[in-house]
Amino acid sequence: MSQLSIYNSLTRKKEQFVPLTPGYVGMYVCGPTVYSDVHLGNCRTFISFDLMYRYFLHLGYKVRYVRNITDAGHLEGDRDEGDDKFSKKARLEQLEPMEIVQRYTLGFRKMMEMFNNLPPTIEPTATGHISEQIEMTQQILANGYAYEVNGTIYFDVQKYDKEKPYGILTNRKLEDLLEGTRELGGQDEKRGRLDFALWIKAKPEHLMQWPSPWGMGFPGWHIECSAMSKKYLGNEFDIHGGGMDLAATHHTNEIAQNQACYHVSPARYWLHTNMLTVNGTRMSKSAGNGFLPGELFTGNHPLLERAYSPMTVRFFMLQTHYRSTLDFSNEALQAAEKGMKRLWEAYDIVKKLEAGTVAATDKALDEKVSSLLASMDECMNDDFNTARVLAVLFEVVPIINSIKDGHIKLQALSGTTIAAVQTYFKAYLENIFGLKNEVQSEDGKLSGVLQLLIEIRKDAKQKKDYATSDKIRNQLLGLGVALKDEKDGGVTVSFT
RNA sequence: GGUCCUGUGGCCGAGUGGCUAGGCAGAGCUCUGCAAAAGCUCGUACAGCGGUUCGAAUCCGCUCGGGACCUCCA
Questions:
Q1: Could you give phi then psi for residue A484, rounded to 5 degrees?
Q2: How many Cα atoms within 13 Å fall on the side-chain side of residue A42?
Q3: What is the structure's pLDDT at A80?
Q4: From the CA of A101, how many Å to the C1' of B46?
Q5: CA A483, C1' B37: Å apart?
Q6: What confidence category does residue A354 fall into, taking pLDDT thresholds of 50, 70 and 90?
Q7: Which of A137, A145, A259, A451 is deepest in the core (most CB within 10 A)?
Q8: In Å, what is the separation between the CA of A324 and the C1' of B63?
Q9: Measured between alpha carbons, how far apart are the two ends of chain A, in Å?
Q10: Number of Cβ within a 10 Å radius of residue A409
């Protein structure tokens, strides 16, 4: 089997994945800022990294997956007169900042659960790691890469860039970056245009503030990830991930902070997921074109024709590679919904197949299926290409359906191959892709009622009383229960 | 302006220089009391123009179009 290779933003190419410690993976993903509901773009990133997390587990790695919760106030802009996001919202809603944090943290976790994302192994909060952030800031100061102005500590980007390339992650030169930045205002206390705050002095009315060697204040945005990744994963770890929009600023600053503090770049592999778009434009908070997952699940949004389930959305995302943009539309979602249904019905058949011990009667077909299955691993190892894995699964589907319909005999495939199909479908659909059947199983009493109706209908059919049999089928369909007559005389029930 | 990404059949989307991606929609056929599902077959797509090559959607150049980042955002 091939080795896993992943695209490293830092080197801009695919590299074979070699963990720092054999058998273990340390992965840090920038989590949400919990001052409002997560929108779907955020969810895409976390679904992408959930997929990677699941795949590492599938490969047998022990994974420490750290995803932070940003619950400490950051400035709205990079100017210190701005309110922080939490206290602003709090005043608006007459709530304590930590009430806001609590509400949206719970909401976020709920959404992650609905999408069937596994929880990270550690989910640290910024406010829970203030002292670590202060310590790191002190060390950066001691190392000479930061300076204090009136109780605020700034990172000295130009000094840093003399020793290490500041724009290494996004392949930019300092001059080019400076060119794109606005002029410093007259009263600005920063020395350099690109300098960013490690610690920010708080005004008395500021709701979230902590004591520090430089007076009361709060941490800058970038330092939390540096401090927490270092604490739980060490100075150097395997993977650091996040959305592409974080690369140029947040991740660039993280690398600079870690280098300035520990003289080493934190992560070996930097993974960035691409944006979700609506009508070709990026979905974002500031653009106001974002969907909330809840709106999607209820269909309650002007752009949505109807509701789409969490698994439909997850499947929809898996049909695209994580580094490609994905455009959102009703048509595309409906296509995904149908495709997933087809795949899942085939999976239901697969589960019921009885793997014999006989050799394959159709050698060619047996080999074809085997090689299809093997290619799934190849696709996944090629930078988590879920789109191709799905394509392969869909190529196996007609074979499965043909076995069910009797076009292909079960014995055409060897028992080993049948068992492999079962293993692969389960591994990929459930364990790696994290899909689950959303149809609620009917409870005992209703099941009995349904069974009765099916029997009455069967009797009617035998008497060629099609008026009655069609009435039962049509009315049940109207209630969301679809009956399908199978060739063998049986009936398949599915819920819509 | 700088740094990049991107343009694939009606829609969504993979794609290693040569072999059918796949899904959805559409057409035909088979099965079927009908329906649904399923199976089989079908579109001969790669923005345009040049170039490299025996051969390019895939490499190079130019043109046109779309997008991202450079400012809070996954």
A1: -125, 130
A2: 21
A3: 40
A4: 48
A5: 10
A6: confident
A7: A137
A8: 25
A9: 39
A10: 11
Q: Identify the three-state secondary structure at position A277.
A: strand
By C-alpha to C1' distance, B2 is nearest to A176
Q: How many residues does chain A have?
A: 496
Question: What is the ipTM for the molecules in this complex?
Answer: 0.93
> What are the residue ranges spanned by the domains of chain A?
17-273, 300-432, 444-495
Per-residue pLDDT at A35: 86
Cβ of residue A398 near strand B, that is under 7 Å? yes
Predicted confidence (pLDDT) per residue in A298-346, tens digit:
998 888 889 999 999 999 999 999 999 988 889 999 999 999 999 999 9
| Contact flag, residue A351 CB and nucleic strand B, below 7 A | no
Q: Give the residue with minimal CA–C1' separation from B22.
A: A391
Asked if A325 and A274 touch (Cβ cutoff 8 Å), the reply is: yes
A300-432 has which fold? Isoleucyl-tRNA Synthetase; Domain 1 (1.10.730)
Domain A17-273 has CATH 3.40.50.620: yes
Contact A281, A287 (CB under 8 A): yes
Tell me phi and psi for residue A320, to 5 degrees.
Answer: -120, 150
Is A460 buried (19+), middle (13-18) or exposed (0-12) by CB count in 10 A? middle
In contact, A160 and A179? CB cutoff 8 Å: no
Q: A12-34 b/e with 16+ CB inside 10 Å = b?
A: eeeeebebeeeeebbbbbbbbbb
- The answer to whether the beta carbon of residue A465 comes closer than 7 angstroms to any atom of strand B is no
Would you state the structure tokens that stand for residue A10, as one six-digit string? Answer: 């830092």
Q: Which nucleotide comes closest to A32 if you measure CA to C1'?
A: B74
What's the CA dihedral at A206, A184, A189, A220 to 10 degrees?
A: 50
Query: Which nucleotide lies at the shortest CA–C1' distance from A399?
Result: B39
A361 contact to strand B (CB, 7 A limit): no
